[in-house]
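Checklist before submission:
- one chain only
- standard amino acids only
- sequence pasted in full

Submission:
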Amino acid sequence: MIMQLLYGLVGVLAVLTLQAATLQADIVNAQGQGVADAILALTPQGAALPPLSALEPAVILQKDRMFAPLVTVIRRGQAVRFPNEDRTRHHVYSVSQAKRFEIPLYARQEPPPVVFETAGVIVLGCNIHDHMLGYLFVLDAPYFAKSDASGRVTLPALPGGDYTVQVWHPGLKDYALAPEPLRLNPTETHNLSFTLKLRAMRLWQPKAESAPTTDNDAAYE
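Returned file contents:
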């Protein structure tokens, strides 16, 4: 009897998998080049959002006096760890409307994770190293993925139905394109393309270090 129930469960899961939709998108700039670090997000319409399970904290490193990765995406209510792998201390902060916070000078002892309760864009900086810059996108959307170096994004195993689709990127004005409606039919692979008009890179990319290591860091090691 137990084996029959197990086989039945496996069969149900197989059917559900076969009925799931896949979304693929190619995201390029105005010159037709693939855009990395773009976020493709899907929000179901007319249905309750899937519950926020006990997600592990995301991780944003400080390494080589940079935030790594440059762009991180999480669901609203998720926590983020900020481990420091440099020998020098950092002072992480943000004055963004969605979350104002700071983690005072620290090095080898990792501070507690920070929880982000409000959806929005968090721009990260370091009070010691002015060139450091990072982006945290906090979304209500339960389905999202980040584009690779070629600008390709794939979201597999999606329930069929009506959604809004939105693209986020730090180089966009206001950080996001306007949401658009999308209907996904189960068992199909859907293909989309987006062309992003990005701001000048100097406006959103981390800058080169503004001072020699001995000037900025020797006193903090």
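Reviewer check: Helices lie at 2-18, 213-216.
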